[in-house]
Write a structure and sequence with these properties.
Elements lengths: L50 E3 L2 E3 L17 E2 L2 E2 L10 E4 L4 E3 L9 E5 L2 E5 L5 E3 L8 E3 L14 E6 L10 E4 L7 E3 L8 E5 L9 E3 L9 E14 L10 E4 L6 E3 L3 H4 L3 E5 L8 E9 L2
Parallel strand pairs: 9-10, 11-15
Antiparallel strand pairs: 1-2, 2-5, 3-4, 5-6, 7-8, 8-9, 11-16, 12-13, 12-14, 14-16, 16-20, 17-18, 17-19, 19-20
C-alpha cells in the first residue's frame, strides 16, 4: 500500500474504523520477519489518544481513566485490567503482575509509583525515593528491612543520637550525665570513667552510620562511639603522638594523652591518629574505641 500527498496539510494514508464498539483497527500492519517492522515512520509521530508501546501504556488524556474509558475497572489492555489510579498526561502505565499501574519511569508525572505484590516504590519529585512509604524523608527511605550483600558507606564513624543536657559542639568529648538518666553532657575531669564518646561531625568529617533515629529524637546529638572522628584535645602538659591512648582531660570536653595506665582503665576514649604538639590545644584525629 502506498499513499502520497503533496499538500502542506495533506494525508498520504487515511484509515477509518466506523464502529462505535468492539476492538477495531483503522490501520493495521503485520510482519513475519524478525528484523522487519510492522510500521515505520520517518519523522514525527502524532497520537491524539493513548499509545501502547512494548507493553507500556502512555496516557495522552491524563486525569481519571473514566474520562477516556467507560469503566476503568473493566477496561482491559492486551486483555489485562487497568488500574483505577488516575494518570497524568503522558504518564506511562506498566503491567505489575495484576494490573496496569503507573510505572517508575512515567513521563510528565509529579510522583512515580511502582507496585507489585504489595511492595511500593515512590519518587515524590523532591529527589527522595521511598520504599514502602509515600513520604520519603531522605534520598532513600525504606519503611522496613533492607537486605544487601555489600553496603558501602561514605562516612567515617558509627554514631548514635542521645539527648544532652547542655549545648555541645562537634568534636567535644562527652560523658554520661549522672544527674539525668539517659542523657549525656560535656566530659569533666581527667580519667573520667563515664566517658561515652565524641560529638560527631568535627572538621568536616561526615558521619557514616547514625543509630537512634526514633520519633522525638530528630534534634538529638549524634555521638560517635566507634570509627574515626576529630576530637578537641589538650596537650598543655604532654604532646599527643599517633598511637597514644587518649582519655578525658581537666579541660571540659577535651581529650588528653593517657600517662597513668592504672587510672586510664575504663576511661580510654580511643587512639590518636595525628599529632598535637606540647602546650597546644586543637583537633586530633582519633580512632574511637571506648575501653
Amino acid at each position: 500500500m502506498y499513499g502520497e500527498s503533496a499538500g502542506i496539510a495533506g494525508t498520504g494514508v487515511f484509515g477509518y474504523a466506523a464502529a462505535n464498539s468492539g476492538t477495531t483497527y483503522s490501520v493495521r500492519g503485520k510482519v513475519n520477519s524478525p528484523s522487519g517492522w510492522a510500521g515505520y515512520f520517518e519523522g514525527q509521530g502524532y497520537f491524539s489518544g493513548d499509545l501502547l508501546v512494548a507493553g507500556r501504556l502512555i496516557s495522552a488524556a491524563g486525569g481519571d481513566l473514566s474520562g477516556s474509558y467507560p469503566n476503568p475497572t473493566a477496561v482491559k489492555i492486551q486483555n489485562r485490567p487497568v488500574s483505577s489510579t488516575s494518570p497524568n498526561p503522558g504518564q506511562v502505565l506498566k503491567w505489575n503482575g495484576s494490573q496496569w499501574a503507573p510505572a517508575p519511569d512515567e513521563i510528565g508525572s509529579t510522583t512515580s509509583y511502582w507496585s507489585t505484590n504489595g511492595n511500593h516504590i515512590y519518587d515524590n519529585n523532591t529527589g527522595n525515593v521511598g520504599i514502602g512509604t509515600t513520604t520519603p524523608a531522605a534520598k532513600l527511605d525504606v519503611n522496613g528491612t533492607a537486605r544487601v550483600r555489600v553496603l558501602e558507606i561514605i562516612g567515617a564513624d558509627l554514631a548514635e543520637k542521645f539527648p544532652t543536657t547542655e549545648t555541645l559542639e562537634p568534636g567535644m568529648v562527652v560523658e554520661i550525665d549522672p544527674d539525668n538518666p539517659g542523657h549525656l553532657r560535656k566530659a569533666r575531669g581527667a580519667y573520667n570513667k563515664r566517658v561515652a564518646g565524641v560529638v560527631a561531625g568535627a572538621n568536616g568529617l561526615s558521619k557514616g552510620i547514625i543509630l537512634g533515629n526514633l520519633e522525638g529524637s530528630e534534634n538529638h546529638t549524634p555521638i560517635a562511639m566507634s570509627g574515626c572522628v576529630w576530637v578537641h584535645a589538650d596537650a598543655t602538659h604532654e604532646a599527643i603522638d599517633p598511637g597514644d591512648l587518649l582519655t578525658t582531660s581537666d579541660t571540659p570536653g577535651h581529650a588528653m594523652k593517657t600517662s597513668n595506665p592504672t587510672r586510664a582503665h575504663g576511661a580510654v576514649l580511643g587512639k590518636a591518629m595525628t599529632r598535637l604538639e606540647k602546650g597546644k590545644r586543637g583537633l586530633v584525629l582519633v580512632l574511637v574505641n571506648l575501653q
